Amino acid sequence: MTFILKKRNQIFIILGFTTILLIGLGIQTAHIIHDHRENLTKTYHHHIQSELDLITHMVRDAALMHDLSTVQNFFLYWADSHQDIPIVELVAPNGFILFRNDSIKKPKHIMFHEQKIHQNGRLILTLRVTHDLDQLERDTRNLSWKLAGSSAVLTLILGLSLWYFLTRYSIRPLETEIQHRLSAEKSFRLSEQKFYNLFSTISSGVAIYAATDDGDDFIFKDINKAGEKLSNITQAEVIGRRVTELFPGIGQLGLLDAFKQVWKTGQPLSLPLSQYEDQRITQWVKNDIHRLDNGEIVAVFEDITQLKQQQQELELAKESAEKANHAKGDFLATMSHEIRTPLNVILGLGDVLHETQLSNQQSDYVRRIRAAGNALYTLINDILDFSKIESGQLALTMEPITTHILLEDLSQIFESTITHKGLSWSLTIDESMPKTFQGNATRVGQILINLIGNAFKFTDKGHIQLRVYRSDDTLSFSVHDSGIGIEADMIDQIFDKFTQVESGNTRNYQGTGLGLAISHKLSHLMGGDIIVESHVNKGSIFTLILPYIPVKASQIHTDSSQPALTSHNTTTPLNILIAEDAEDNRLLLHAYLKKTPHIVEMVKDGQEAVARVKQTSFDLILMDIQMPKMNGYQATRAIREWEADNQRQPLPIWALTAHALDDNLQKTLDAGCNGHITKPIRKDDLLAFLDRCSPYLTAENTRPVDGGK
Predict the structure, then answer these.
(1) CA 239 to CA 263: how far, in whole Å?
(2) Rg (CA), the chain
(3) C-alpha to C-alpha distance for 348 and 354, rounded to whole angstroms
(4) What is the secondary structure of 504-516 as a DSSP string?
(5) Using N-to-C axis directions, what is the helix angle for 68-80 and 2-64, rounded to 10°?
(6) Per-residue pLDDT reduced to its tens digit, 223-265
(7) How many Cβ atoms from other residues are within 10 Å of residue 330's Cβ?
(8) What letter does residue 703 receive in the DSSP assignment?
(9) CB atoms within 10 A of CB 597
(10) What gap in Å lies between CA 33 and CA 144, rounded to an integer?
(11) What's the DSSP call for residue 170?
């Protein structure tokens, strides 16, 4: 439209210029005619006056001699030779007309010329002529027509030239442009209609505003149907009204400042999710703001109140679940502690009692007690492991594993038990199996123990075999048995927790059903899987598949300085302080260490432990965690602070704890302990631990005592 206006203005300018030019031409022509008429009139007058002067001069002598006949004849002759002069007169001094010659045609417009003849100052005769001005008018008119014709021809040529140039270079391009513009305008209207349809039907709220008060406020120009619904307001109520009038809380929301910023900079802006509230509505909204070419502001907004409420509900549910999970963890930690503490005494005293002289019946009773205790110990460990896996708290550290050591230890554990049941046992290590691989030895061993133990449980005759081999990038550990097998419809369920091959109230094979579930989850944590093949009454094959991760050359080493775990030949006695509040546990630890060269002192709580450390030099402290007056965490921190204040070398402190969860074990390290020993404590494990510590805790490390600071 702007282009069309420019073109139209150009045409008006050209036409105006042409009009002015024509008017100027007309005025100039009129001036020429007027000047020419004046010139003709003057020339004619001058001519008549000159001839009249000549005649006067010629008839002067005759007039002076009063020869009126000669004057009359000569004057008449002159009049006959000038037909354009209609009247010739001779006038006496007294006004009497002596001679008059009139033409037939009487002129309408006349002009007088006269010449007087004097003698000695006295008038003798007056010559008077009356000439015809109509002839002069005719001459002037003829000249005007000629000039007008010339001007008309010139104007016509000029007009046609201007029209040609206007048509070729202005009007036709303008018509073409107008057609393009009309086509574009039609397309724009269609596009505008599509936009308006989209504007009206879009599910998001859309509002259009115009700035006022230099951007300090905005006026509603339009709002779509979704915006009406989301804002709980109608289009008729908003158009022409200020935003701050309809939504008084918009300033606190920061939306008004955002409008002003977009209006001034032209840069779109997306506001984060925020809550708007006034007397009419309360909602969570998200706004995207843009500026149009005409300076108006468009806000696209979404009401996600329902989504936010669902999110809040999910957060509350998550928080509740976390609290429940935390409560579950606390429950497991408490139950672990409460069960492990008496179990520690049962297993420990069972081991001690087994070493005494017993009758056959008593030995059988003790064996059954120890078996039941071990089963309970395994159950507790399985439950804790499963809880750790499900909560994502079980972290696996990767380390080099020596294949033959891992498998020979397993073989030593099961060989005698399996053969005692009348089954055959075999271990086959394929040549393709690498000597070392990267993994978690504890968890790999745990899985294989569960698989072999499961095979042992469900096999009454025949064989149990462990075959190990490598296939491409995987390692396979296959446990074959000739047991009862598994029904086809049960194979997919055997890895569910608390699920066994047999179900019902009567079972021939006892167990919790956690071993396979834990093994399956552990295999996944290590990037592997467990595959099952089974036939009823023919046996089963459980294959643990792990990714093969080779061990780097820098990781392969042997450490001959560490004593064997089952070696109890310690010759270096240690001065050990044991802090334990339970009398049964003190009795058990005393029984464990009674026949060793170690010097043992026992206290009942943390306060006594801190006091004894300040008074006596010890090589090692075994610190129970849950004790009255001052628990193990507090006692350890107090000892570390005393050592730091007195510049003492830190004393090795190992926690004795019935808490087996990672969070609780981390707390012992945070409190300043060097490590932990988890209850129930077995005699062999404790003595092996002291064997490992003994070479490093010599008399050189004993701290002097200076009066019990």
Answers:
(1) 19
(2) 64
(3) 10
(4) SS--SS---S-HH
(5) 150
(6) 877 777 767 777 777 788 887 877 777 777 777 888 888 888 8
(7) 12
(8) P
(9) 11
(10) 6
(11) I
